[in-house]
Specification:
The chain has one domain. It is an alpha+beta fold. Helix content is about 25%, strand content about 30%. It has helices at about 5-15, 60-70, 80-85, and strands at about 20, 25, 45-50, 75, 90-95. The radius of gyration is 18 Å and the shape is elongated.
């Protein structure tokens, strides 16, 4: 729960919509008096995505994030991908909005 000192302060946070944590995303939603956690639908999922058969020039973090952004919001890459230890595929953790997937 967040408490704000002013409406302006709340609006600054509200405009962000979400903040990236390590790893994961903190999403902001406006609370309402009729809020019922039992009726909430989780529309986001964090998924590990494997990108197969990528040439070595695509294994930079920025390039992998660009590719993964076509699926959702890229969060991080795994250690083997970052250090290029394994090499058969790149793994990227992506936050996907499942409500837009269908």
């Amino acid at each position: 729960m967040f408490n704000f000192h002013s409406i302006e302060e709340m609006k600054k946070v509200w405009v962000l919509g979400a903040v990236q944590l390590n790893p994961g995303i903190l999403r902001f939603f406006c609370w309402s008096k009729d809020f019922d956690p039992q009726n909430q639908i989780q529309s986001h999922a964090q998924l590990w995505v494997r990108l197969m058969n990528l040439p070595k020039e695509y294994w930079r973090k920025t390039t992998l994030f660009e590719i993964a952004s076509g699926i959702g919001y890229p969060l991080t890459i795994d250690e083997a991908t970052q250090s290029r230890l394994f090499g058969h595929y790149a793994r990227i953790l992506v936050d996907v909005d499942m409500s837009e997937a269908f």
